[in-house]
Specification:
This protein starts with a helix and ends with a strand. The strands form four sheets. Strands 2-11-14-13-12-15 form a six-stranded antiparallel barrel. A four-stranded antiparallel β-sheet has the order 3-10-8-5, with no helix packed on it. Helices cover 28% and strands 39% of the residues. It is an alpha+beta fold. The chain has helices at 2-22, 95-137, 143-182, and strands at 33-40, 42-58, 61-65, 70-74, 82-83, 88-92, 185-187, 192-197, 204-205, 210-216, 220-227, 239-244, 251-258, 268-274, 286-302, 307-309, 312-318, 324-335, 338-343, 350-352, 364-372. The protein contains three helices and 21 strands.
Length: 373
């Protein structure tokens, strides 16, 4: 009996609860509405570009080395110094070469003295020969005497020629000694910047051993490698955008040289691209140049609509009800203010522009400024 009464009470309670629930009015969750500028993705023909990487160099680079083997006495410059044409860079020990120069000068003095004596003997022999010729015309000398005088004149002339040759040799020795002495003072071949210093005072300099490295002052150039399969897309004088790490803006470069022979190991060509002057550019920076090779259809969106969330690129995309949803994208090349979307978006979709650090996910977007293509 008690069990029957308990079952009736439970059934009555269930009916009462069901009746109460049937009278409740369902409530919808409220969605926050925010105003934002909206842009739209589109399908466009975009260029296919060949990307060639390389390093920024000076248009002229010089490796400074000695032409004689001597001890380094002074190196008055350091890496980063700006130098002018003819400025001393390295001074070598010149004691031995100065001694050689003094010896050559002494040899010249001796040769000149010998030449003066030979000249005097030759002049005397020549005047004697003239007198004997007059006497021979008068038949006052014998043929033997005439032969002896003639031979003495010829010998004196030969001695004079030998003395003159010794003098010239001594003068040449002096010129060589002075040249060698000049090699002990190494100067800048052009105005530029010292980029590396490889020797200090006390080191032994030798021909071909680098002492300094320097770049010519002025505009720089990007030296990039282009695969042989794509070299036909590169032409002399063509303009190309160049991106350099550490430089905020894209630079407009000009192709000035295409090395005609390919590197047999990498099967690539070296292309030199002149860059405009920029205070941010430094030799040794890494950069890349883009060469157009054709076009293809792609989805593009304004770069301002793309935000970074951690290491991922994404955008706030509006659904059919105007609700923004965060969507992750795979991006391609950036061209001016547009970026190519490789996956994650279709043409004609609407995106929140310049979201910056604001979170629009799940919010209704009130398009106050209209949709911008």
């Amino acid at each position: 009996m008690k069990m029957l009464l308990l079952g009736c009470l439970l059934a009555a309670s269930a009916v009462l609860i069901a009746g109460c629930r049937s009278n409740e009015v369902p409530q919808q969750a409220t969605v926050e509405t925010v105003a934002a500028r909206v842009v739209e993705s589109s399908r466009q023909q975009v260029p296919i570009e060949l990307r060639a990487t390389g390093t920024v160099h000076a248009r002229e680079t010089a490796t400074i080395s000695a032409q004689v083997m001597e001890r380094v006495e002074q190196v008055p410059v350091r890496a980063g110094d700006t130098v002018r044409t003819g400025q001393p860079l390295v001074v070598l020990d010149s004691a031995a070469l100065q001694a050689s120069s003094a010896q050559a000068q002494a040899s010249e003095v001796a040769a000149q003295s010998q030449q003066a004596a030979a000249q005097s003997n030759a002049s005397l022999a020549e005047s004697t020969l003239r007198r004997y010729r007059q006497l021979q015309a008068e038949k006052s000398v014998s043929p033997q005497e005439m032969d002896e005088v003639t031979q003495r004149a010829q010998a004196a002339e030969a001695q004079l020629d030998a003395a003159k040759a010794q003098t010239r040799a001594a003068e040449d020795q002096i010129a060589v000694a002075r040249t060698m002495l000049g090699y002990t003072r190494i100067t800048a071949p052009f105005a530029g910047i010292i980029t590396a210093r490889m020797a200090d005072p006390g080191a032994m300099a030798a021909p071909g051993v680098p002492l300094l490295q320097m770049d010519r002052s002025g505009p720089l150039q990007l030296q990039a490698t282009v695969d042989e399969s794509a070299i036909a897309a590169v032409r002399m004088g063509m303009k190309t955008p160049v991106a350099v790490d550490g430089v905020a803006q894209t630079l407009q470069g000009t192709v000035v040289e295409i090395v005609p022979a390919a590197d047999p190991s990498s099967h690539s060509f070296l292309v030199k691209i002149d860059l405009p002057s920029s205070s941010q550019l430094r030799a040794g920076m890494y950069g890349s140049a883009s060469f157009p090779t054709g076009t293809h259809a792609a989805i593009v969106v304004p770069r301002s609509a793309v935000v970074a969330r951690g290491s991922l690129q994404c955008a706030y995309v509006l659904d059919g009800h105007g609700i923004a949803q965060l969507r992750y994208l795979a991006l391609g090349a950036t061209r001016r203010d547009m970026v190519e979307v490789l996956s994650g978006m279709a043409a004609g979709e609407q995106l929140v522009d310049t979201p910056e650090d604001r979170d629009f996910a799940g919010k209704h977007i009130d398009v106050r400024n209209g949709v911008q293509p």
